[in-house]
């Protein structure tokens, strides 16, 4: 013990501070450790002050105020979790670049060129069109279904982004079955589906509806869900199922009707379901959907009414029905139909 | 610490709960250490975040570690010094090398503590002596006495060889010796001056 004491005989505060044994045991809770320094102080009283000073230095450094972030650990943890996927992407990209060898780079270049050509050829608007007498089913990129009636056209931008609504432009008549993509409590821009027809915009989330645009007259019939109409002349309407909104683009008039939805959708089954309809309704079908020009020699014929379901898949069938139920004479020459009263 | 090495092992296997436990144990210690280098709290938070994000993605490449604390301090220090160097490049034309990054030891100023332990005067002396030291000398003192790290651990955290770590520490002690001595001498001279004038 004495020889160990001797070692400390000429120590100053800094030497004690520096001494590994002192600095690790001066604050020890073990009595043996403390006893040693007490004994040393008893042997060399002049060392007491030096030891006391060194101890105070250590104490001061240990008692430095603790700094804590203002954001809670929860927030920082959340930030870390949010960043994990981003970091993963960056890491894999780096990794990919590093491991590309010369030949794989070449393959990649060829592949890239093919992809680029493919992308460019598919960019921009895409459209589906039907000619007279043709009906077609169109599946959109989001798996929404569209039944396109004759002489109609639908166009859309191929690449639907998540920050923009799904948009299509329509001329003619079409039945929409829009896929619902919104999840509870989360509505993104592309959960909206917008049909532009004439100067109207029809906005839905996911529903079934029919849009007919002929001769400047737009008819929107809602089957399910809800549908918002905005546009021309400051129109703002919310349709409920079973309602038909009729808008005349030229006269700027609007009308709300109740229609039998089964009748509105009858065309998708290749039929024309009419009740108390005039011959004029059928004339419209012949002209709009089949591209014929219809001449009525007697204007009174327009007021002739009939009720029932007419098959409209073939012009021949339509004419057969008219001829026998309305008791008229019909002549067909090229694309011209002449109807005479008997 | 037994549970800590278990956490580490589980975390390396992709266990998120262990990862979170490591985060919870060390995030405030790391922040406190970071505050010695800079008072920019957002920057320190960013470094803590970056550290743990990196840790998660590199977990499969991480080895056993004798001390999780040491590993985290070392990685954190590297991220922080790189960020501070970059920040200094934006502020001025010259770059602060990691050698010259500031480091402050903030001695307590708690009045009760000062009175009870009769620390005020000693605090003043120590504070002045610390100011005379280089930032790296202050840092080694902090790691040695506050974090209670061994020389091996300090060498690892600061990225120095063991030999250089010892050298740095001895130089810090020399500086302390020199300036404490001077202060005492000054105190003595002022007393002498006081006696003479009276």
UniProtKB/TrEMBL annotation, chain A:
Pfam families: FecR (PF04773), FecR_C (PF16344). GO terms for molecular function: sigma factor antagonist activity. Residues 129-227 form the FecR protein domain. Gene3D superfamilies: 2.60.120.1440, 3.55.50.30. Residues 274-339 form the Protein FecR C-terminal domain. This is DUF4974 domain-containing protein. It comes from Sphingobacterium alkalisoli.
Automatic annotation (TrEMBL), chain B:
It holds the Pfam family Sigma70_r2. Residues 22-89 form the RNA polymerase sigma-70 region domain. One of its GO terms (biological process) is DNA-templated transcription initiation. Residues 123-174 form the RNA polymerase sigma factor 70 region 4 type domain. The keyword Protein biosynthesis does not apply. Belongs to the sigma-70 factor family. ECF subfamily. Keywords: Sigma factor, Transcription, Transcription regulation. GO terms for molecular function: DNA binding; sigma factor activity. This is Sigma-70 family RNA polymerase sigma factor. InterPro entries: RNA_pol_sigma-70-like (IPR039425), RNA_pol_sigma-70_dom (IPR014284), RNA_pol_sigma70_r2 (IPR007627), RNA_pol_sigma70_r4_t2 (IPR013249), RNA_pol_sigma_r2 (IPR013325), RNA_pol_sigma_r3/r4-like (IPR013324), WH-like_DNA-bd_sf (IPR036388). It comes from the Bacteria.
């Amino acid at each position: 013990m004495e020889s160990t004491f001797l070692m400390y005989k000429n120590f100053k505060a800094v030497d004690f501070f520096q001494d590994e044994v002192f600095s690790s045991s001066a604050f020890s809770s073990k009595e043996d450790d403390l006893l040693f320094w007490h004994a040393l102080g008893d042997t060399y009283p002049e060392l007491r002050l030096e030891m006391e000073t060194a101890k105070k230095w250590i104490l001061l450094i240990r008692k430095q105020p603790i700094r804590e972030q203002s954001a809670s650990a929860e927030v920082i943890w959340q930030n870390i979790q949010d960043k994990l996927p981003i970091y993963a992407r960056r890491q894999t990209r780096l990794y990919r670049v590093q491991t590309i060898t010369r030949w794989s780079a070449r393959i990649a270049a060829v592949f890239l060129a093919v992809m680029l050509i493919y992308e460019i050829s598919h960019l921009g608007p895409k459209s589906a069109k039907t000619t007279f007498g043709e009906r077609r089913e169109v599946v959109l990129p989001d798996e929404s279904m569209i039944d396109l009636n004759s002489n109609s056209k639908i166009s859309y931008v191929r690449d639907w982004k998540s920050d923009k609504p799904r948009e299509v432009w329509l001329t003619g008549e079409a039945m929409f079955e829009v896929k619902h993509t919104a999840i509870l409590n989360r509505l993104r821009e592309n959960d909206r589906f917008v049909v532009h027809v004439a100067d109207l915009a029809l906005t839905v989330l996911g529903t079934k509806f029919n849009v007919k645009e002929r001769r400047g007259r737009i008819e929107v019939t809602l089957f399910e869900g809800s549908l918002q109409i905005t546009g021309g002349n400051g129109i703002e309407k919310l349709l409920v199922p079973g309602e038909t909104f009729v808008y005349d683009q030229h006269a700027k008039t609007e009308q709300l009707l109740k229609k039998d939805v089964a009748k509105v959708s009858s065309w998708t089954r290749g039929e024309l379901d009419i009740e108390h309809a005039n011959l004029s309704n059928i004339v419209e079908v012949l002209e709009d959907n089949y591209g014929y020009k219809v001449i009525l020699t007697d204007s009174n014929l327009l007021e002739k009414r009939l009720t029932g379901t007419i098959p409209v898949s073939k012009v021949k069938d339509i004419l057969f029905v008219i001829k026998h139920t309305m008791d008229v004479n019909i002549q067909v020459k090229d694309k011209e139909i002449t109807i005479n009263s008997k | 610490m037994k549970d800590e090495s278990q956490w580490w092992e589980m975390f390396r296997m992709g266990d998120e709960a262990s990862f979170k436990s490591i985060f919870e144990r060390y995030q405030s210690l790391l922040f406190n250490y970071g505050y010695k280098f800079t008072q920019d709290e957002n920057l320190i938070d960013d470094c803590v975040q970056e550290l743990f994000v990196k840790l998660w993605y590199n977990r499969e490449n991480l080895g056993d570690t004798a001390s999780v604390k040491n590993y985290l301090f070392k990685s954190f220090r590297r991220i922080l010094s790189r960020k501070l160097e970059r920040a200094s490049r934006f502020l001025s034309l010259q770059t602060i090398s990691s050698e010259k990054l500031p480091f402050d030891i903030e001695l307590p100023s708690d009045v009760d503590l000062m009175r009870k332990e009769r620390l005020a005067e000693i605090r003043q002396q120590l504070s002045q002596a610390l100011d005379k030291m280089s930032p790296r000398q202050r840092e080694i003192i902090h790691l040695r006495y506050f974090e209670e790290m061994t020389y091996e651990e300090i060498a690892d955290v600061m990225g120095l060889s063991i030999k250089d770590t010892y050298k740095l520490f001895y130089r810090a002690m020399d500086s302390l010796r020199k300036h404490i001595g001077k202060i005492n001498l000054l105190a003595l001279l002022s007393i002498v001056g006081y006696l003479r004038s009276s």
